[in-house]
Amino acid sequence: MAEVTLRDVRKVYAGGVEAVKGVSFSIPDGGFCVLVGPSGCGKSTLLRMVAGLETISSGDVAIGGRVVNQIEPADRDIAMVFQNYALYPHMSVYDNIAYGLRNRGTPKAEIEARVAEAARILAIEPFLQRKPRALSGGQRQRVAMGRAIVRKPQVFLFDEPLSNLDAKLRVQMRVEIKKLQRALGVTSIYVTHDQVEAMTLSDKLVVMNAGEVEQIGTPTQIYRRPESRFVATFIGSPPMNLLPGVVEADGRVALDGVTLASDDMRAGLAPGTRVEVGVRPEEAEIAPQGAPGTPFAIDFIEELGATELLHGFVAGAPFILQVATGAVPAGLKALTLSIPARCVHVFDAQTGKRLGRVESENARAA
Questions:
Q1: Where is the ABC transporter domain (predicted)?
Q2: Which of 181, 250, 273, 318 gives 20 to 30 Å between its CA and that of 326?
Q3: 168-175: long-range contacts (C-beta < 8 A, 24 or more apart)?
Q4: What span, in angstroms and rounded, lies between the C-alpha atoms of 77 and 51?
Q5: Does position 330 have pLDDT exceeding 80, yes or no?
Q6: Which comes out higher in pLDDT, residue 167 or 34?
Q7: Could you read off the pLDDT of 119-147 as tens digits, one per residue?
Q8: From the CB of residue 293, how many other CB atoms can be counted at a distance below 10 Å?
Q9: What does residue 172 show for φ and ψ, rounded to 5 degrees?
Q10: What is the mean pLDDT of the chain?
């Protein structure tokens, strides 16, 4: 196990295309860090630079205090699990798991012991003599993880390992990966574009966009205090509602015919400043009948079983409200919302950056 540190890491391709733009953060020994962001944001490129599969244009990557920029992938003491499993189809499960150890000249008795231990941990003991074609997708992914486990590396790297699995199996496998990482205590970096995977797996979450880090923190920090419009709408399902507004003299925010208070307002914001107001769908509440509040016009209802998503409009802007199923009578077209000041986020309309008065969690978490 080892700490992993990235210092101003950049990747520039031919033609001046900058895929990764000065990324810096560290992962403590035994930590589980998830890189999340949309396709093309640079997260897989960053992982491949840690692995040594991509050259680093500038900056440093250190594993266990040792800068590995010029060290070959095989000598970095890492193990990588890929999206496509990368199993040898002509080999048995046992031979796939043992392959790397044999190449390193590991004694036969030790290979047998390590493979047996990995098979027990991953519950694939009955499949050791099968070929990969005789396994399900989840079983193949376990074999790929077994091949990584037997290496006993300092760092595990996961490159979207669950993207080829169906929805039910993805849930099961992400729970298994988290339990496995905790049991082994190996520092891990995991890449995904799925924000649910990112939130459930990570100790430390790095949100990336267009080659840059938008925010670093725990899943709870990032969910509760997104530092930008991008993070607010990327993390959370359904995403945060955003409404155009203008700062008023008393620190409140005026929407189209509606005024909201926000605990997020900081001193010094000039009246008339254009902002965007964010409210998560589950944090707005239905006000008691006759109570003052924010008008909400219902357009249609999306049924999700235990909950419902009410799609409609607040102050002329699209708005989604998440409520328990049956909380709203059938056929109702309008209601009044109570939106607590603690749940109203404020972002700069031009830059998209948070205009909160509390010190950035990004700075503290990094």
A1: 4-235
A2: 318
A3: 169/137, 169/138, 170/194, 170/197, 172/138, 173/138, 173/141, 174/200, 174/201
A4: 9
A5: yes
A6: 34
A7: 998 889 999 999 999 998 889 988 998 99
A8: 16
A9: -65, -45
A10: 91
Beta bridge partners of 243: 277
**Cα–Cα dist 213/42, whole Å:** 10
* Residue 345 · residue 277 · CB < 8 Å: yes
Q: How far is Cα 73 from Cα 218, in angstroms, rounded to an integer?
A: 29
CA distance 96 to 328: 55
Q: What are phi and psi of 18, to 5 degrees?
A: -95, 105
d(CA 176, CA 186): 14
Residues 6+ away with beta carbon under 8 Å from 206: 25, 33, 34, 35, 36, 213, 215, 216
Cα–Cα distance for residue pair 110/93, rounded to 1 Å: 17
Q: Is 358 exposed, middle or buried (0-12, 13-18, 19+ CB in 10 A)?
A: exposed
Q: What are 278's strand-pairing partners?
A: 242, 345
Please tell me the pTM assigned to this model.
0.88
Q: Order the strands of the 66-67 sheet from edge to edge.
A: 17-27, 4-13, 58-63, 66-67
H or E element: which one contains 137?
helix 137-149
